[in-house]
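Each lists sequence, tokenised fold; shown next:
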Amino acid sequence: MRSAAWHARIVCGHEVGAGFLVTGRRVLTCAHVVEGSGTAPVTVSFPHARELGELSASVVAHGGWAGDVTDPGDVAVLELERDVPLAPAGFAPPDAAYTEPYPKLIAYGFPEGYDEGTLAEYQAVSGQLIAGEWLELVAWHGHGQPLVAGFSGAAATLPDGRVAGMVTAALDAPAVRKGRMLPLDVMARYWPELGELVPTPGHRDDARRRLYTLLRRATGTGRGCDPNRLYVDAVGAFGPPLPTGGFPSLWAAAAYVQWEVPDPEAVNRFAGRLGELLDATPAPPAPPAPPTPAPQAPPVSSAWAPVVVEIEHSGAGPDQVTVEVSAYRDGQRRPVGAGRLPRTGVRAYVQSRIDEAVAQLAPDADELVTFVLPREWLNEAVAHWECGAEDSTPLGCAYPLVVTDRARHHSGRLRHQLRKKWQKLDSAGQGVEVHRVGCGTVERPPSLRKRLWDGDAGLAGYASPPTAARGHFEVGLTVPVPVLLWSRTGCPRPAHTDPSCPGDAEPPCPGSAFLDQLAVAVAEVPPAELPRHILSLRLAADAADEPDLHWARDLQLLWDDPRCFPETTASLHSPVA
């Protein structure tokens, strides 16, 4: 049997609970044990290593537990003030607790009067999860120590000392003694780093360790890697679909592949693709060369290689437009085709030219399909256009796809200001706040302009489409906000007042719900990676059981980085004399 020195006693205010050491400095426990950590200190002691005394600790990760005994996510990770010289807990495979015959599970807790700790013996009732979260426990014998206050956060261990889960709740009734525990795979939903420590059936230990080594490397370098795209690459066309809403982080995506995807090779594919992306990081710059004349155009600092579809009114009639398709390679624009067409012919023309334009890009380039549109076209469903007559894949599910306003795209003032804004966003290397523009907002456009300027906004989210909030959209287009996001359908009640305003008694509208979902979906995504992230959201919406009800179904992304277009963009001209 392994040493039991890793069992921990945790005190936070008036709460006393248990926990277990998982690394030299990290301890796992229940979130409800340290609920008062905002106002009370957290101390950790180890009964089998009393010479260490009481160590202070802080909560560094939280499962999102909301406060009720039946709320999910009752997990907290504590970081000690220093490393301790103790061997951490060892883990069993996640199904060890509920493989028949169900084994005895031993919990080491600290009920009142037992500061040194005491043991309780239980077993799982079955492998069926309660509400998708807990395994139900029943006492091994009808006598002995019940699970009571002080056992919360205790490791549920097999007789050989390996951890199989964590005790979270108890019910000591006269007729039966019951409790609940979180199994290891459920705990990993809330703290994905646990996945590195737990052996997973079907996955080799070396493959699992390699995956988590790469995840730490990705975190350390700050290189943006889209977790949703990596997941899709790992599971393949016939694997489990992307979960609704996608993944908030690389760690969450990796944990899902490890625990939820039956194909064990998916972990290797995920790690392999992540390694390729990390190895593709540009090498450090060479030593300075002798001064040379300045280039005619500023260097491209964005990694995207655009394919541009630019549409302009031709002047030959209200229904006639000029369309030009081109590609950027080595900082130069390469025209592919241009024509004057009726509006009804634009889609087919674009479909016939996109593949040709993509073929002009460098073999390792990250393509970005950019529609440069007249203002009244900004809500056009270009992401839903099919790739071609024989390929029904929506363009927005085949490529990272963005739109931008044509007047903004050619504005010297905005191009200059946007370059400066992007330099600031890139140096931060993190997600940005969504500046909300609510449905039917009473905020005057000049006030919105001041708010976006004063807040140094990087992203504005609209609850209504451009046709329903023209003045507010014009403000967003004429200030240097690099990213605008909205739902093309928006709120169906154009006169509706934003329910977030005080005193409004109306129920929440779809526009406000969209902004709520959007804020969560992009919270940790650097703006430079948004085109790839939005592609993942579109794939998730398209794969949903009811695509039309998915919040991201009609998501429109206006994303504007002038560094992708290093030359001054010439105005379109009519190809017809």
Summary: The two ends are 88 Å apart (CA to CA). DSSP finds 13 helices and 23 strands in the chain.
